[in-house]
Amino acid sequence: MPSWLGAPLRGVLFDLDGTLLDTAEDIADALNRALAEINLASLATEDVRNMIGGGAPVLVDRALARLGAAAGAVSVDKAKLLHRFDFHYERAHRLKLSSSRPYPGAAEALRELHELGLKIAVVTNKGRPMAVELLDELGLGKWLDFVVGGGCSGHRKPRPEPLLFACAALQVNPSETLMVGDSINDVTAARAAGIPVICVPYGYNEGVNSRELKCDAFIESLAELPNFLSGATQNSN
């Protein structure tokens, strides 16, 4: 029986970008194409990687602030820029030009957790249709019971509502659930929802070392998670 610190588990919630999937190159490419359309400079992928977290509207705000456009020196229609970012991001996937990929161990972890009888959901600030399409495209969707996207609950992480929405959809109590993420948004949302949280150290944490996160435990790879939840290797952070 999968458990967390001796208590039985019925559900596991996963963050998407930076936890299950490495999507930074696609996000940076779509953002730079949108910026080029309004004659703004491009940003290095590593800079964009450090801006990921909070969803596309936050990403656009951070990019404009980095370029100095948010101060009003350049007239920018943020809604149009966001629309063009979404267009380029979705177009890359539609034309099979995406470089997004699962992190090592992600598919195996989802399969094994599913086989253990756990209910599994993804909770992301990305739009739900794009998240579902991406997960299916990369072969991970078949192991999932539900996907919560940005706006599904009326709020985004770091608010707890998306996680509680996922628990309700899975028909599990927060006390019987675990969150797996890579960022302060995941940790903050999980704490507010009363859900323990495990972090991976390799994802997107807005430029801050993920190992500084005050989560309950770290795993180096998602491949470790099934044994972690069914064995005696659980160590509090």
Describe the structure.
With 237 residues, the chain is of the alpha/beta class. The chain has 2 domains: 3-22 and 101-230, Rossmann fold (3-Layer(aba) Sandwich), CATH 3.40.50.1000; 24-94, Putative phosphatase, domain 2 (DNA polymerase, domain 1, Orthogonal Bundle). It has 9 helices and 10 strands. The protein has helices at 24-37, 45-49, 56-67, 78-94, 106-115, 128-137, 161-170, 184-193, 225-230; strands at residues 3-4, 7-8, 11-14, 21-22, 101-102, 119-123, 146-148, 177-181, 197-199, 217-218. The strands form 3 sheets. The chain has a 6-stranded parallel beta sheet with strand order 7-6-3-8-9-10, with helices on both faces. Strand 1 (3-4) and strand 2 form a beta hairpin. The radius of gyration is 18 Å and the shape is globular. Mean pLDDT is 92; it is low at 232-237.
How would you summarize this macromolecular structure in one to three sentences?
Helix content is 40%, strand content 13%. With 237 residues, it is α/β, with parallel strands linked by helices. It has a six-stranded parallel beta sheet, sandwiched between helices. Strands 1-2 form a two-stranded antiparallel ribbon. The protein has a two-stranded antiparallel sheet with strand order 4-5.
Enumerate the spans where pLDDT stays under 50 for 5 or more consecutive residues. 232-237
Round the mean pLDDT to the nearest integer and report it: 92
Tally of structural domains: 2
Shape label = globular
For the record, the CATH architecture of the largest domain stands as: 3-Layer(aba) Sandwich
The ordered H/E elements are EEEEHHHHEHEHEHEHEEH
Number of strands: 10
Roughly what fraction of the amino acids lie in strands?
Answer: 5-15%
Helix content: 25-40%
Work out the radius of gyration.
Answer: 18 Å
